C-alpha cells in the first residue's frame, strides 16, 4: 500500500525543480501565511522560515505543484506502482479480503485498547485512593514538621520554656474563645431556624384561616373571589411570558449589537436608519405643524399667549427663588450668630480648659521627676547631716580642749619655743642635705680610686711585659753582628725575590699581551660578525622591554598591595572572635536558673 | 707579604630578584644603586677584594652575576665551572623566586659535586615590608636544610649587603687555611 | 739523565698564577716533598718553569694533591707564543695521600715547561714536587 502522504506536508513527487534542500519550504510558507496574515505572500516569504533557519538555496517556492501543462491537482500515487492493471472479480475479491483483514485487525486493536483503558481506569481508581491516603498522611506529617520547626526555632532563639508555655496557654485560651464563639453562632443559627419554623407554621395557619374565611363567605362573593383569583393567575402568567419575551428580545438585541459593532457596514446601516428615523420624525412634526398652522394672526396670538404664559411662569419662579434665597440668608445669619455665641462661651471655657491642661502637664512633669528629685534631696540631706555630725563632733572636741588651754603668757612662750624649734629643724635639715651631698661625692671619689687602682695594675702588667720584651730585644739588638747578617741575608733574599718577581712580571706582561691580542682579535671578529651585531641590538631592545615590564610589574604589585584587604580581614575576623568569646562568657555568666 | 686568594662567587637566582643590584652596590661600596631594571643577558663579572680581619690576607671576590631568566640558563652554566662560593638570591615579595632557590643551588652544586661549596642564601628587598610574603623563619629553614647561611638585605636601602660577602670571603679563607694544614700533613 | 727542574740546577719559575709567600712556587723545584706550592683558588692555574738551558726531556713527574686534570706544554725558546702541547692527563683522586703523576714524553727539546692545572678536586691544589728527567743539550 502506498504511503499516505502526511497531512501537514506536500507530496514530494510533485515537487518543482530547484528545491534542492529536501526540506519542505511549502510547509514553511504555509506556516508563515498563518502567522503574518498581513504581510505573507506565498513565494516571496520563502526566505523567512518560521524556525529561523536560513535558506541557503535560491528557492522558488510554489504552493501548488505544477506540471508542464499548467496547474495540476493533487496527484495521488500513480498506478503502475504495484497495482494490477486488469480489474476483474478475483481482483476485487482480493481487495475485499484485504480490507476485511484490515478491519479485523483494527477491531482487535480497538478491543485491546478498550481493555487497556478499562484496566487503567480501575487502576486509576486504586491509585486515586492511594493518592488521597498519601495526601492525608502528608498533611499530618507537614503538621508535625511545622511543630518541629517551631520547636527548633524556639530552641535556636533560646526562648525560655516559660515563654513557650505562655505562648501555649495563649493559644489554648484563644482556641477556647473561638470555639465558644462558634458554639454561640451555632446556637444563634439554631434559634433562627426555629424562628423560621415558627413563621412557617404561622403562615400555614394564616392560609388555613384565609381558606376558612373564603369558605365562610357568601357564594356570590366566592364567585367573585374565584374570578378575581383566576384573573390574577392569568395576569401573572401573562406577566411571566411577557418577561420571557422581553428577556429573549434583550439577548437578541445584545447579540445584534455585538454583530453590529463588529461589522462596519451594519453600523453604517444602523446610523443611516437612525438618521432616517430622525428625519421621518422631523418630517411628521413639520407636517403636523403645517396642519396645525392657521393664519399668521392666529399664530402670533398663540405665540403671544405662550410668551405671556412663559413670562408669568418665569416671574413666579423668580419670586420663589428670591424667597428661597432670603430664607437661606436668614438661616446663615442665624448660624453665624450661633457660632459666635458658641465661640464666646467656648472661648471662656477654652481658655479655662487650656489653663487647666497646662496645669495638668506641669503636675505630670512634677510627678515624674518627683521621685528622682526626692532621692537626690534625700542623699543631700544625709550628706549634710553627716557633715553636721562631724562638725559637731569637732566642736565638742575643741570645746573639751578649751579646758587645757594655756594662759596667754604661756601661749607666747610656747610660740617662741615653737619658732625656735622650727628654726633648729630647718637648720638640721639643711645640714643633712649637705652631708648627703658630701657622702655622694666621697663615694664617687672612692669608685674613681678603685678604677685608678685597676688601671695601675694593668699598666703595671703591661709595663712588665714591655720590660721583658725590651730585655729580649736588648739581647737581639745587642748582637749587632747577627742583626747585620740577618739584614744582609734578608736583603739578599729580597733582591733575589725582586729579580725573580721582575722576571716573572716580564713573563706575565708578555703573556698578558699575548692574551689581549688574542682577545682583541676575537672581539673585532665578533663585532664584524653581523649576527652578533643583530643579536646585540635585539638584546638591547629586549633589555628595554624587560625594563618596561619590570616597572609595570612593580607598579602593579604596589597597587595591589594598596588594595590588599587580607590584613584588614584578618584583623576583623580576630576582633569578631574576641567579641564572640566575650559575648559567650557574658551569656554564660548571665543564664543561671 | 699578604696572600691574595681568589674566589669565584656565583650569584644566582630568579630574574628580577636583585642579583645585579646587590653586586653593584657591593662593588661600588654602597655608592650607587641601579634604579632602573636592566636585564642581565648572560653573565656580568665584577671583582672586589675583601680584607680578612685578623689577617693581612685579602680575598678577591670574582662575582659572576648570572642572568636569571631560564632562556639564558644553558648559556650561563658554561661560566659556572669550578665555583668557589655560591650566593643564591630570592625576593621576599615573590614566592616563586623562593621556591626556585633549590633549583639554582642544585645547578651550581652540580658543577662541582665532589667538593663542598660554601654558600649563602640571600633574602632581598626586605624594604618592601608590606608586600613581604616569605618570613625569615622560612628562609632560615631552607638555608639550614641546604647547608647555606641565611642573610637578609635590601640593595635599595644598601642595608646588610656587605655581610654575606664578608662571610663568604671568611669561609673561603678558612677553607684555605684548612687545606694548608692538610697539605702540610701530607709531606 | 737528571732532574733538570731543580732550583739548585738552575731552573727558575718564570711565571706562576698563584703566589702565597709561605708556599711559593719555588717549593716545587726544591727537590723535596715537604714543601709545596699551593694555588689560591680558581682554575686554570699555570706555572712556567725555565730550565737553565735548552734541554732534552724524557719524562715529567709530579707529586701533587687534589689535581684532576693537568696539561703540559713545552717551548724551545723564552717567548710565550711558541709553546707546544706536550701531554694532557686526568689524575685520580687520592685522599690524604700525594698523587704521583708521570708523563713519559720521548725526546723533547725544551727550554721552558708550562704546567697547566685545568681542574682540581677541591678549590685549591698543592704541588709538592716537580721532577723533569732529561739531559742538557749541547750546542
UniProtKB/TrEMBL annotation, chain A:
<dbReference type="GO" id="GO:0005929">
    <property type="term" value="C:cilium"/>
</dbReference>
<feature type="coiled-coil region">
    <location>
        <begin position="182"/>
        <end position="348"/>
    </location>
</feature>
<dbReference type="GO" id="GO:0030992">
    <property type="term" value="C:intraciliary transport particle B"/>
</dbReference>
<keyword id="KW-0175">Coiled coil</keyword>
<feature type="compositionally biased region" description="Polar residues">
    <location>
        <begin position="26"/>
        <end position="35"/>
    </location>
</feature>
<feature type="region of interest" description="Disordered">
    <location>
        <begin position="1"/>
        <end position="50"/>
    </location>
</feature>
<feature type="coiled-coil region">
    <location>
        <begin position="411"/>
        <end position="504"/>
    </location>
</feature>
<protein>
    <submittedName>
        <fullName>Uncharacterized protein</fullName>
    </submittedName>
</protein>
<feature type="compositionally biased region" description="Low complexity">
    <location>
        <begin position="1"/>
        <end position="13"/>
    </location>
</feature>
<dbReference type="InterPro" id="IPR029602">
    <property type="entry name" value="IFT74"/>
</dbReference>
<feature type="coiled-coil region">
    <location>
        <begin position="93"/>
        <end position="144"/>
    </location>
</feature>
<dbReference type="GO" id="GO:0048487">
    <property type="term" value="F:beta-tubulin binding"/>
</dbReference>
<dbReference type="GO" id="GO:0035735">
    <property type="term" value="P:intraciliary transport involved in cilium assembly"/>
</dbReference>
Automatic annotation (TrEMBL), chain B:
<dbReference type="Pfam" id="PF00071">
    <property type="entry name" value="Ras"/>
</dbReference>
<keyword id="KW-0969">Cilium</keyword>
<dbReference type="GO" id="GO:0003924">
    <property type="term" value="F:GTPase activity"/>
</dbReference>
<keyword id="KW-0342">GTP-binding</keyword>
<keyword id="KW-0966">Cell projection</keyword>
<dbReference type="InterPro" id="IPR050227">
    <property type="entry name" value="Rab"/>
</dbReference>
<keyword id="KW-0282">Flagellum</keyword>
<dbReference type="GO" id="GO:0031514">
    <property type="term" value="C:motile cilium"/>
</dbReference>
<dbReference type="GO" id="GO:0005525">
    <property type="term" value="F:GTP binding"/>
</dbReference>
<comment type="similarity">
    <text>Belongs to the small GTPase superfamily. Rab family.</text>
</comment>
<dbReference type="InterPro" id="IPR005225">
    <property type="entry name" value="Small_GTP-bd"/>
</dbReference>
<protein>
    <recommendedName>
        <fullName>Intraflagellar transport protein 27-like protein</fullName>
    </recommendedName>
</protein>
<dbReference type="InterPro" id="IPR001806">
    <property type="entry name" value="Small_GTPase"/>
</dbReference>
<dbReference type="InterPro" id="IPR027417">
    <property type="entry name" value="P-loop_NTPase"/>
</dbReference>
<dbReference type="GO" id="GO:0030990">
    <property type="term" value="C:intraciliary transport particle"/>
</dbReference>
Automatic annotation (TrEMBL), chain C:
<dbReference type="InterPro" id="IPR000421">
    <property type="entry name" value="FA58C"/>
</dbReference>
<dbReference type="GO" id="GO:0042073">
    <property type="term" value="P:intraciliary transport"/>
</dbReference>
<protein>
    <recommendedName>
        <fullName>F5/8 type C domain-containing protein</fullName>
    </recommendedName>
</protein>
<dbReference type="InterPro" id="IPR008979">
    <property type="entry name" value="Galactose-bd-like_sf"/>
</dbReference>
<dbReference type="Pfam" id="PF00754">
    <property type="entry name" value="F5_F8_type_C"/>
</dbReference>
<dbReference type="InterPro" id="IPR033558">
    <property type="entry name" value="IFT25"/>
</dbReference>
<feature type="domain" description="F5/8 type C">
    <location>
        <begin position="15"/>
        <end position="121"/>
    </location>
</feature>
<dbReference type="GO" id="GO:0005929">
    <property type="term" value="C:cilium"/>
</dbReference>
<dbReference type="GO" id="GO:0005813">
    <property type="term" value="C:centrosome"/>
</dbReference>
<dbReference type="GO" id="GO:0030992">
    <property type="term" value="C:intraciliary transport particle B"/>
</dbReference>
Amino acid at each position: 500500500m502506498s504511503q499516505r502522504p502526511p497531512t501537514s506536508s506536500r507530496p514530494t513527487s510533485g515537487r518543482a525543480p530547484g528545491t534542492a534542500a529536501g526540506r519542505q519550504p511549502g510547509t514553511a510558507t504555509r506556516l508563515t501565511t498563518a502567522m503574518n496574515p498581513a504581510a505573507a505572500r506565498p513565494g516571496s516569504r520563502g526566505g523567512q522560515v518560521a524556525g529561523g533557519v536560513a535558506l541557503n538555496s535560491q528557492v522558488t517556492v510554489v504552493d501548488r505543484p505544477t506540471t508542464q501543462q499548467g496547474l495540476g491537482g493533487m496527484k495521488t500515487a500513480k498506478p503502475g506502482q504495484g497495482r494490477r492493471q486488469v480489474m476483474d472479480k478475483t481482483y476485487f475479491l482480493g481487495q475485499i479480503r484485504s480490507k476485511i483483514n484490515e478491519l479485523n485487525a483494527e477491531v482487535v486493536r480497538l478491543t485491546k485498547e478498550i481493555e487497556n483503558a478499562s484496566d487503567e481506569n480501575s487502576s486509576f481508581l486504586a491509585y486515586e485512593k492511594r493518592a488521597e491516603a498519601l495526601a492525608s498522611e502528608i498533611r499530618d506529617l507537614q503538621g508535625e514538621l511545622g511543630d518541629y520547626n517551631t520547636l527548633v526555632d524556639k530552641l535556636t532563639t533560646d526562648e525560655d520554656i516559660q515563654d513557650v508555655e505562655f505562648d501555649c496557654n495563649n493559644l489554648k485560651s484563644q482556641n477556647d474563645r473561638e470555639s465558644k464563639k462558634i458554639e454561640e453562632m451555632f446556637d444563634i443559627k439554631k434559634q433562627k431556624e426555629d424562628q423560621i419554623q415558627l413563621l412557617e407554621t404561622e403562615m400555614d395557619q394564616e392560609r388555613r384561616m384565609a381558606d376558612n374565611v373564603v369558605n365562610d363567605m357568601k357564594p356570590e362573593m366566592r364567585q367573585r373571589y374565584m374570578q378575581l383569583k383566576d384573573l390574577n393567575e392569568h395576569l401573572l402568567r401573562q406577566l411571566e411570558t411577557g418577561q420571557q419575551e422581553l428577556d429573549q428580545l434583550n439577548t437578541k438585541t445584545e447579540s445584534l449589537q455585538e454583530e453590529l459593532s463588529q461589522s462596519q457596514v451594519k453600523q453604517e446601516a444602523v446610523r443611516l436608519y437612525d438618521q432616517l428615523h430622525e428625519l421621518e420624525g422631523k418630517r411628521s412634526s413639520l407636517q403636523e405643524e403645517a396642519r396645525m398652522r392657521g393664519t399668521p394672526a392666529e399664530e402670533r396670538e398663540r405665540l403671544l399667549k405662550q410668551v405671556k404664559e412663559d413670562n408669568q411662569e418665569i416671574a413666579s419662579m423668580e419670586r420663589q427663588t428670591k424667597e428661597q434665597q432670603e430664607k437661606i440668608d436668614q438661616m446663615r445669619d442665624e448660624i453665624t450668630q450661633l457660632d459666635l455665641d458658641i465661640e464666646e462661651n467656648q472661648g471662656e471655657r477654652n481658655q479655662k480648659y487650656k489653663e487647666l491642661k497646662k496645669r495638668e502637664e506641669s503636675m505630670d512633669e512634677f510627678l515624674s521627676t518627683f521621685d528622682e528629685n526626692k532621692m537626690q534631696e534625700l542623699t543631700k540631706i544625709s550628706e549634710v547631716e553627716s557633715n553636721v555630725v562631724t562638725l559637731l563632733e569637732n566642736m565638742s572636741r575643741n570645746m573639751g580642749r578649751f579646758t587645757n588651754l594655756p594662759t596667754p603668757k604661756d601661749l607666747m612662750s610656747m610660740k617662741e619655743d615653737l619658732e625656735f624649734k622650727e628654726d633648729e629643724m630647718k637648720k638640721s635639715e639643711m645640714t643633712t642635705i649637705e652631708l648627703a651631698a658630701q657622702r655622694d661625692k666621697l663615694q664617687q671619689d672612692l669608685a674613681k680610686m678603685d678604677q685608678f687602682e685597676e688601671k695601675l695594675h694593668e699598666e703595671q702588667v703591661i709595663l712588665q711585659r714591655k720590660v721583658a720584651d725590651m730585655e729580649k730585644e736588648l739581647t737581639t739588638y745587642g748582637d749587632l753582628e747577627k742583626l747585620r747578617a740577618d739584614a744582609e741575608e734578608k736583603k739578599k733574599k729580597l733582591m733575589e725575590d725582586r729579580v725573580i718577581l721582575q722576571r716573572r712580571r716580564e713573563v706575565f706582561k708578555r703573556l698578558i699581551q699575548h692574551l689581549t691580542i688574542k682577545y682583541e682579535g676575537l672581539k673585532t671578529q665578533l663585532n664584524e660578525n653581523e649576527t652578533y651585531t643583530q643579536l646585540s641590538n635585539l638584546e638591547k631592545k629586549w633589555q628595554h622591554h624587560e625594563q618596561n615590564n619590570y616597572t609595570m610589574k612593580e607598579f602593579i604589585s604596589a597597587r595591589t598591595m594598596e588594595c590588599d584587604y587580607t590584613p584588614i580581614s584578618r584583623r576583623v575576623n580576630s576582633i569578631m572572635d574576641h567579641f564572640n568569646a566575650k559575648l559567650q562568657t557574658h551569656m554564660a555568666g548571665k543564664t543561671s536558673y | 707579604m699578604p696572600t691574595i686568594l681568589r674566589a669565584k662567587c656565583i650569584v644566582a637566582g630568579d630574574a628580577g630578584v636583585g642579583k645585579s643590584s646587590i653586586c653593584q652596590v657591593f662593588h661600588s661600596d654602597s655608592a650607587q644603586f641601579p634604579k632602573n631594571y636592566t636585564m642581565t643577558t648572560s653573565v656580568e663579572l665584577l671583582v672586589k677584594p675583601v680584607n680578612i680581619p685578623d689577617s693581612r690576607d685579602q680575598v678577591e671576590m670574582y662575582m659572576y652575576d648570572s642572568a636569571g631568566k631560564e632562556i639564558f640558563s644553558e648559556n650561563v652554566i658554561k661560566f659556572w665551572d669550578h665555583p668557589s662560593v655560591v650566593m643564591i638570591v630570592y625576593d621576599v615579595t615573590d614566592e616563586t623566586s623562593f621556591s626556585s632557590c633549590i633549583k639554582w643551588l642544585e645547578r651550581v652544586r652540580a658543577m662541582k659535586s665532589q667538593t663542598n661549596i660554601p654558600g649563602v642564601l640571600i633574602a632581598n628587598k626586605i624594604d618592601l615590608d608590606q608586600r613581604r610574603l616569605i618570613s625569615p623563619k622560612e628562609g632560615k629553614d631552607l638555608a639550614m636544610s641546604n647547608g647555606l647561611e641565611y642573610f637578609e638585605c635590601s640593595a635599595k636601602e644598601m642595608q646588610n649587603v656587605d655581610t654575606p660577602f664578608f662571610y663568604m670571603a671568611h669561609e673561603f679563607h678558612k677553607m684555605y687555611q684548612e687545606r694548608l694544614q692538610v697539605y702540610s700533613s701530607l709531606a | 739523565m737528571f732532574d733538570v727542574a731543580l732550583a739548585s740546577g738552575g731552573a727558575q719559575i718564570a711565571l706562576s698564577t698563584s703566589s702565597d709567600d709561605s708556599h711559593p712556587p719555588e717549593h716545587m723545584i726544591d727537590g723535596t716533598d715537604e714543601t709545596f706550592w699551593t694555588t689560591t683558588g680558581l682554575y686554570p692555574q699555570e706555572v712556567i718553569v725555565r730550565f737553565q738551558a735548552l734541554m732534552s726531556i724524557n719524562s715529567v713527574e709530579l707529586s701533587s694533591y687534589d689535581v684532576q686534570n693537568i696539561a703540559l706544554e713545552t717551548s724551545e725558546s723564552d717567548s710565550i707564543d711558541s709553546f707546544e702541547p706536550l701531554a694532557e692527563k686526568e689524575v685520580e683522586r687520592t685522599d690524604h695521600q700525594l698523587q704521583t703523576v708521570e708523563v713519559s714524553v720521548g725526546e723533547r727539546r725544551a727550554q721552558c715547561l708550562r704546567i697547566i692545572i685545568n681542574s682540581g678536586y677541591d678549590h685549591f691544589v698543592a704541588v709538592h714536587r716537580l721532577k723533569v728527567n732529561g739531559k742538557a743539550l749541547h750546542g
